[in-house]
Each structure stands twice: as C-alpha cells, then as structure tokens.
Amino acid sequence: MIKCVTFDLDDTLWAVDPVIHQANRELWDWLEQNAPLFAQSHVLADLAEGSAMRQRLLQQAPEIAHSMTQIRLRLLEQGCRDAGYSADQARQLSKAAFDVFLRARHQVELFEHAQAMLEQLRLDGYVIGALSNGNADVGQTLIGSLFDFQYNADGVGSAKPHPGMFEKALEYTGLRPEQVVHIGDHPINDVQAARQVGMWTIWVNLPGQHWPQPACADARVSCLSKIPFEVQRLASQGESRVTL
Q1: Block mean pLDDT (10 aa), the chain, length 244
Q2: Are residues 96 and 130 in the same domain?
Q3: Do 145 and 188 fall within a single domain?
Q4: Are 221 and 227 in contact (CB under 8 A)?
Q5: pTM value?
C-alpha cells in the first residue's frame, strides 16, 4: 500500500532557471552596493552555474560539489578575497550576500496545477516529502505547509542519484520502498535512482522539457494535475510489489 509521495523540486514543481537568474541579479545589485571591490573585479556571469570561476573552485574543492550552498558561499568568499578584502571581511560579506541570494531563491513561480495537486494528495491521505539536489527550502515557499519533511544534498552529504536521500526518506517515514512514490523530472537523478532503491516512480515531463532519452518510470505525466490519478493507479498495483 502506497503511503508516501516524495517530490523533486526544481523543474518538477517550478522552473528553476528564471529563479536563479533573478536571484543572481539581486545578489549582484547587493554586491555593487556593499562589496564594490567584488563588483569591480568580476562580472555578473561569474555567479552563473557554468562560469569559469565556479569550475576553478570545484577543481580545487571537489568535495563540495554536491552542495549548492557551500559552492556559492565559497565562490563569494574567494571572490571577495581575490578582490582585495581581508579574510574576515570576505567571510562576513559572503554570508550576508548569500542571505540575499537565498531570499530571492525562494521566490518561485509554481507550475500550473502544482498547489492543487499537492492539496489533493494531502486530502487523499499521503505523507508528502521533498528530495532535492538544490538548496531551496520548500518550507519557505507558498507550498511549504503541504510538506511533511524535506531532505537535500547539502544536509544528506550526497546528491541524487546517490541513494542517500531516498534512504533518509525511508528512515524518516519508517516505510518500505514499495510504499513510496518518487516524482521528478530527471530521468537519472529522480527516476532511475528511485527505481534502484525500489520505489515507484512518476516522471514529470512537461512541455518544453527535453531529454536525450526518456525515463523508464512506472508512470509519466505531461501535466501536474494528472499526478493524483497516477498515484492512485500505482497504489492499486501496490500489493503486487513487496520488498523484504
């Protein structure tokens, strides 16, 4: 019997690129006002995910590659030091700057039907969790009250497709894998990883989302409104899947 539904967040319940773009813009405005040496020594593009500055950082510190929070904090601190701030100033500025970014990071615009779909799952009696590689705290979004728990890569110490996040969800709920449905947009990080743990899977493939290969999921939706129906359909098959 399926009792829990877990969700990826970015690009499953909202589009992440516009959020990060705006958050970087607000961060840059703050840096121009409060860390002018940083702004004089860098450009806005240095804050982007694929920037050369970020790649150099990850080459120097590959152990933080799973943590979007640590990457950004380290990027800001190193950038401040390179710009001429002292070590103490760099630490203080990077923390304050990150707070600005994080506030903007949570100003998400939900995909159509996302909130109504989650409300229906709650009415249906499911425990709802979030499992995300990103650093968004779902509790700080408009749908935070609809979630019972959340794990992310920063807190767990590993990013999907590593099984750690899924195992944490099972430990928290006390459920077996076949009692959980994981829902996400990424064919590998969400669908394949959850299937390998033994969970049911629903692939969110919304219009405009393109992957080289389709996900091998138990169900596929192109509209979030279809998720409650698919969860119920999988639940009807649940008695046939048992793990020991």
Answers
A1: 96 96 97 97 91 92 94 96 96 97 96 98 98 95 97 95 98 97 97 97 92 88 97 83 50
A2: no
A3: yes
A4: yes
A5: 0.91
